[in-house]
Amino acid sequence: MNAHNHPAAGKPVGDRKLNETTKLAQQNTLLSPRFYTTDFDELDRMDVSLVREEWDTLLASMRSDPNKGHFKRNEEWDDITLDDVPIELRTELVDFLVSSLTAEFSGCVLYKEMKRRGNNKDIKELFTYMSRDEARHAGFINDALRDFDIGVNLGFLTKTKKYTYFKPKFIFYATYLSEKIGYARYITIFRHFERHPEKRFHPIFKWFEQWCNDEFSHGEAFSLLMRSEPKLLQGRNKLWIKFFLCAVYATMFIRDHARPEFHKAAGLNIEDYDMKVFEITNQCTSQCFPLMLDLENPAFLTTLRRLNRLSQRIDVATEKGGLFNKVKKTGFQIAIAANFIRLYSLPSKKNTIPEVSRMVPAW
Ligand SMILES: [Fe+2]
Ligand SMILES: [Fe+2]
Known about the structure:
The protein has 363 residues and is mainly alpha-helical. It has helices spanning 20-26, 40-44, 52-63, 90-117, 121-147, 154-160, 168-195, 208-227, 237-257, 260-266, 270-285, 298-320, 323-345; strands at 12-13, 16-17, 35-37, 163-165, 291-292, 349-350. The protein has a domain at 3-233. The protein is built from 13 helices and 6 strands. Helix 7 packs across helix 11 and helix 9 packs across helix 12. The longest helix has 28 residues, at 90-117. It is globular, with a radius of gyration of 21 Å. The structure holds fe (ii) ion (FE2) (2 copies). One fe (ii) ion binds next to helix 4, helix 5 and helix 8. Residues 104, 107, 133-134, 137, 214-215 line the site of one fe (ii) ion.
C-alpha cells in the first residue's frame, strides 16, 4: 500500500491540509490522551523545603541532561516506510504512535505552561527540564510518523485540542501515574524486544531504554512535589488516589486490548504485559502512594476483562447506530459504571514498604 493511500494520509480540509493523524490526536474520547490545564498560581505556591535534599539531587541530574544526545537517529535506526509494515499492522501501529505522541505532547504543553506562568524558582526550573524532555520525545515520535508521510501538526493541535481542567492535586495524581506507567511500559517493551529482536517491527523501540529513564525522573519529581505537601497523600485524598489508580489501570487495559494485531506482531500477550506493567507501577508508586491495588485478587482481572468486553460492545453498538443500539449502548454504559464501582470497591493493599530507594530504577 502506498503511504498516500493510507487512511491516515493527508486530506484537504477547507483550505487547510489537515491529515487524519492530526484529527486522531485531536480526539477527546474517554480513552484518548488529554491535554490538561490547571490552577497555575496554586501550583506556583508549592514549597519543596520538606524534601529539599532529594529535590536538589534530582534537579542536578535533570540539569546535567543525561539524554541530551539520545533522541537522534544513528546507525541503529533502520529506515522504514509504511510499505514495509505488514498491512494488518498498519492501522494499529499508527494508532500506537499517535496515542504515544499525544501523551508525550500533552506533558510538553502542560509543563511548558507551568514553566511560563510560574515565578517560583524551583517550579520554573523543574518544568523547564520536563518540557524540554517531552518536546524531544514528541518530536522523535513525530519524525517516525513523518517517515510514513503522516506527521501530526503539533502547532495546530496546541491551538485546537480541548483542554481538561484539573486542580493541581489531581494533576499530581494523574501525571505522576502516567509518568510511572510510561516508564513501566517503555522498559517492559524494551526488555521484551531485547529477548525477541526478531519481533521488533519498528526501530523506535530500540530507543525505549534510555527514554524510560526520563519518564522515571519525571515521576520522581511529582512524587517529591506530593511528599512536600504530605496531606496530599493522607486522609480523604487516599480515596482520590485509589480512584486515579483504578481509572488509569482500567483505561490502559481497554486501550491495549483495542490493538490486538500490534501485540500479536510483537509476540506480547496483552493481559500478561498489562499485569507486568501494573506490577512495576505498583512498586514504583509505593514510594509515595499510601495504597496500591491488589493485583493478586482474582476479581481485579475479571473486572477489568468485563470492563473491556463492555467497552467493545459499546463500540459495536456505536458503529451500528440506530435507536435500538442507542438503548443498548446506554445499558452497557450503566454496566461499565457498575463494574468500575466494583473495581473501586475491591480492597486495596496498604503500602507497608518502608523507605525505598527513590532515585534508582530497579528494572
Ligand atoms: Fe515523555
Ligand atoms: Fe514524562
